[in-house]
Amino acid sequence: HILENAKTTLELESKAIHDLIATLDDQFVSTVEHLSNFEGRVIITGIGKSAVIAMKIVATLNSTGTAAVFMHAADAIHGDLGIIQKKDAVICISKSGNSPEIQALIPFIKKRGNLVIAFTANLDSYLAKTADKVISTYVEKEACPNNLAPTTSTTAQMAMGDALAVALIKCRDFKSDDFARYHPGGALGKRLFLTLEDIAGNNDLPIVSATEALPQCIMSITKGRL
């Protein structure tokens, strides 16, 4: 039963992502075109699990050349609206599109004149009807057996965020050298950014005499590397 439950979860989530392909339309295209050419940042907001997905999308965008900032929807109406600058675009992520925090937040963003982009599974929701651009993250049901815990829906949100990020990478002709500048740390950063000069300057060069026997040469080189 454990394996069957796991397999069912993965099947439902993979199907949900596949079904998103058919929802892609001119709204997605115009969103990418706008974000690839504007001078502002992408502010991404949400509540609950959608907020966690928003943070992941922010991290992906920042590492691929699109300046992005996370803003929690609940904190936004208690002072964090100051994060949003004049030229910024705001992506609101909400499965229902009717969360009280989102309904309270949208009018203030619209009043400031910022572009609002909706990621929602409910195209009849308040968010979908008030946003400037709407990207569907519709799913038939959650993988949760009670159809309650955000599982399939958050997977769809994250996948659509990846689709947006990759489309922007292509539009901006973002290369591996560009990625290295944003990601110099860790194994990935070393692979992309570390040069021979970086290594050579921090290690003593092993020096051996031309008269030394081979075993002594090997020992000298080994000690030099250590």
Brief description of this entry?
The chain is of the alpha/beta class and 226 residues long. The chain has helices at 2-20, 26-37, 49-63, 73-76, 100-112, 126-130, 152-171, 176-182, 186-193, 196-200, 214-225, and strands at 42-46, 68-72, 89-93, 115-120, 133-136. The model has no long low-confidence stretch (mean pLDDT 89).
| Gap between N and C termini | 53 Å
Largest sheet, in brief, is: 5 strands, parallel
Shape: elongated
Total DSSP E strands: 5
Poorly predicted runs of 5 or more residues: none
Q: What string gives the helices and strands in order?
A: HHEHEHEHEHEHHHHH
- The percentage of residues in β strands lies in 5-15%
Helix percentage range: 40-55%
The largest beta-sheet arranges its strands as 2-1-3-4-5
Return the structural class: alpha/beta
Put simply, the count of helices is 11
Question: Averaging pLDDT over every residue, what do you get?
Answer: 89
Structure, described:
By secondary structure, the chain is of the alpha/beta class. 53% of the residues lie in helices and 11% in strands. It contains eleven helices and five strands. Strands 2-1-3-4-5 form a five-stranded parallel beta sheet, sandwiched between helices. Helix 6 links the parallel strand 4 and strand 5. Helix 2 crosses helix 7, helix 3 packs parallel to helix 7 and helix 8 packs across helix 9. The termini are far apart.
List keywords for this structure.
226 residues, alpha/beta, five-stranded parallel sheet, 53% helix, elongated
